[in-house]
Amino acid sequence: MADQPLEIDLHAILKKRLPTKVKRFVPRFVISWLAKLIRQDEMNEILRVTFPSRGSKFAAGVLQHLDISLEVVGLENIPDKRLIFASNHPLGGLDGIALIAVLGQKYGDNNIRFLVNDMLMNVEPLKDEFLPVNKFGRQGREASLKITEALASDMEILQFPAGLCSRKNKNGEIADLKWQKSFAAKAVEHQRDIVPVYFEGKNSPKFYNLARWRKKLGIKFNIEQILLPSEVCKARGKRFKIIFGNPISWETLRKSGKSYPELAEDIRSVVYSLKSKSER
Q1: What pLDDT score was predicted for residue 55?
Q2: Ranges of the chain whose pLDDT falls below 50
Q3: What is the per-residue pLDDT for 178?
């Protein structure tokens, strides 16, 4: 455990990571502008006031500091057994924090694991609950082994099958991108029922507009991701609703005769069918 709060220092991070040839051409005022864009000072304040909490206590502390409230529906009907919680991913940060707070309180931090992008391992207070997804080299093999061990254990697994957070589609709706098939395959392989989870929420119009223009310009890199830290701060005072649906039996999935991509799409549809309950 760290003996002092984690602190985000964009100047130090870029100085360490950027190649020497590149660093000399990046003006200091540009880095300062980026630090302001991601609300570095506000993020560091969150890290200070929640220190030294970890896991679900840290997550609950973040929500409390930002005066964010949660309405949780259906969790009382979820059994205490080996499950995969598959949720939509509308916010790109706070949704994961909220789910860790809720599931950590129900099952205990030692009994939950959250599959995340390996970059999130830098969020040190949640490091023990995270399982990094890394597909390359030795680290990829180690990450894959840890994920397999967790799936074979009695711990509960949480996952955002879309990977990236939701975007605005052509119909103007905020929805996940295509769900990856791996969670459905792993559910059958490790005999785990899947709990569909609908998280009601959305980011600011600025986030979706930047994503739209990025696509129009043909830029493949998801530059809108840089706004996600500021989206956390913008959520101050909001209320979010989380709906847990009925578990879907792994045996039902196995006997369906459908491919794993088809099953992933079916479960994604089940998650969004829970949206009607959030609107009541």
Answers
A1: 97
A2: none
A3: 95
30-66 burial code (b ≥16 CB/10 A, e <16)? ebeeebeebbbebbeebbeebbeebbbbbbbbbbebb
Distances 243 to 14, 22, 120, 167, 192 between C-alpha atoms, Å: 39, 46, 25, 20, 20
Among 219, 224, 220, 221, residue whose Cα is nearest residue 204: 224
Distance from chain centroid for Cα 8: 19
3-class secondary structure, 143: helix
Which residues have CB under 8 Å from 42's CB, separation 6+? 233
Q: Which of 44, 101, 50, 70 is nearest to 233 (CA)?
A: 44
Plot region of 52 (φ>0 → left; ψ -120 to 50 → alpha; else → beta): alpha
Determine the pLDDT at residue 3: 74
Distance CA 235, CA 71 (A): 15
Contacts from 58-62 at CB under 8 Å and sequence distance 24+? 58/125, 58/126, 59/97, 59/98, 59/100, 59/101, 59/104, 59/126, 60/101, 60/105, 62/94, 62/97, 62/232
Answer whether 37's CB lies under 8 Å from 230's CB. yes
Q: What is the per-residue pLDDT for 277?
A: 65
Question: Please, what's the b/e burial string for 203-237 (b: 16 or more CB within 10 A of its CB; e: otherwise)?
Answer: beeebbebbeeeeeeeeeeeebbebbbbbbbbbee
137-167 confidence digits (pLDDT tens)? 555 788 889 999 999 999 999 999 999 999 9
DSSP 47: H
